[in-house]
């Protein structure tokens, strides 16, 4: 049997629906998530050009062996790694929370403070993407945005690819040492509406500043296959089984259905550029200032830096800033007013905002619960948004698009930057 027929037989046996044409092919299993779950086959020609992504039904964890891509270094391993790469003597080391990477808070004998960030082995397979993230952080820092910057190793490298055995065999992880930014997260702080205005404004400043970022590798930021992109809200359908028996599943299905009919068709016409992608209440650090207000002292985690729609940045910011706020309905207008002091949204963008905010809440709730089935040891952090997110999604859905928009847009129009 020749190779073309062999591949055709294989794809037919797997039940794939359509292959537009067959060259001599090779394929790679492409997980749609960090571990086993819904998968697809990425078909390529001999020089690696992508032909087509065909997504299959969910695959049982028993069928595809789960690989834990998270780094799980001990404090001793992290200490030895830091000393070897950066030549510093530590007087203190402790763990910091993380979704699927590993972060350590470090203090040196000179009393300098740093964060050692070890990326999961899945994302570490794309070092070029992390180089662009590192470049963006430095670029923003030089222009007044309080982002972290990366400290070079003793050999002058901004990141080091390290093969480490965390108990499941050796995997390669990207290691970076970053400056420590003082303060508390928004989630821990009683922020005011004026603070939220400033956060919305900062989000817009970040994205407009990134329009000037120059690199030959910006194409790695394309968001087509990024599951957290608000372009990919329909992917939630593949994970909805984790919500079986939960009344919230009905609301999530309805949100996704409306998104598909009302938002998805217009995405091609929405303005796009490089966005931070994850301005949430854990990634914005603030310090107290006068009159009970706060100043932003840090913007963290550029791992979701991507080329995507600008209105997505507004939606993500509103969704997460509502999470721990005692008056969540007051958040949207303040964030929107801050954003529009820099970049005014079009009518089409504004009309999409409600479903985009709800879509992000759905993503957070569904993917968080899915990840708990894979990483039960990190349940508390993975379900950070579960309680407040459930209440918010239910409340906003019950109020409806028209009433929520009236509140947001009226508040934004009346907002005064004091």
Automatic annotation (TrEMBL):
Under Gene Ontology molecular function, one entry of this record is: hydroxylysine kinase activity
Residues covered by the Aminoglycoside phosphotransferase domain: 96-331
The task this protein performs is described as: Catalyzes the GTP-dependent phosphorylation of 5-hydroxy-L-lysine.
Location comes to: Cytoplasm
The protein's matches in Pfam families, at most eight in alphabetical order, are given as: APH
Enzyme Commission code: 2.7.1.81
Task: From the Swiss-Prot or TrEMBL record, give the protein name.
Answer: Hydroxylysine kinase
């Amino acid at each position: 049997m020749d190779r073309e027929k062999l591949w055709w037989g294989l794809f037919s046996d797997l039940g794939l629906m359509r292959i537009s044409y067959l060259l001599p092919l090779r394929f790679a299993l492409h997980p749609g998530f960090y571990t086993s779950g819904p998968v697809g086959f990425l078909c390529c020609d001999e020089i690696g050009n992508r032909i087509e992504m065909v997504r299959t039904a969910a695959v049982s964890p028993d069928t595809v062996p789960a690989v834990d891509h998270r780094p799980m270094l001990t404090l001793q391993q992290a200490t030895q790694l830091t000393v070897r790469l950066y030549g510093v003597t530590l007087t203190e080391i402790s763990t910091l929370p993380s979704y699927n990477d590993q972060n350590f808070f470090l203090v040196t004998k000179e009393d300098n403070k740093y964060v050692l960030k070890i990326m999961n082995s899945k994302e570490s397979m794309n070092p070029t993407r992390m180089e662009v993230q590192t470049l963006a952080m430095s670029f923003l820092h030089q222009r007044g945005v309080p982002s972290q910057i990366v400290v070079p190793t003793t050999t002058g490298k901004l990141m080091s690819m390290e093969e480490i055995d965390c108990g499941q065999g050796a995997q390669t992880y990207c290691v970076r040492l970053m400056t420590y930014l003082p303060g508390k997260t928004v989630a821990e702080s009683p922020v005011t509406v004026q603070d939220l205005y400033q956060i919305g404004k900062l989000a817009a400043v970040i994205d407009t500043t990134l329009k000037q970022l120059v690199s030959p590798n910006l194409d790695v930021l394309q968001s087509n296959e990024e599951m957290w992109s608000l372009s990919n809200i329909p992917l939630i359908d593949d994970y909805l089984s984790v919500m079986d028996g939960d009344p919230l599943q009905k609301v999530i299905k309805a949100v996704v259905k409306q998104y598909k009919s009302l938002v998805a068709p217009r995405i091609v016409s929405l303005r796009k550029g490089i966005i931070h992608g994850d301005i949430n209440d854990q990634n914005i650090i603030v310090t107290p200032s006068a009159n009970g207000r706060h100043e932003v002292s840090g913007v963290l985690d550029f791992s979701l830096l991507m080329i995507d729609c600008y209105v997505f940045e507004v939606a993500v910011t509103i969704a997460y800033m509502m999470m721990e706020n005692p008056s969540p309905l007051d958040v949207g207008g303040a964030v929107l007013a801050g954003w529009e002091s820099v970049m005014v949204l079009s009518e089409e963008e504004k009309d999409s905002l409600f479903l985009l905010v709800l879509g992000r809440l759905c993503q957070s709730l569904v993917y968080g619960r899915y990840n708990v089935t894979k990483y039960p040891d990190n349940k508390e952090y993975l379900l950070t948004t579960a309680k407040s997110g459930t209440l918010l999604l239910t409340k906003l859905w019950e109020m409806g698009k028209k009433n929520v928009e009236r509140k947001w847009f009226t508040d934004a129009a009346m907002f005064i930057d004091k």
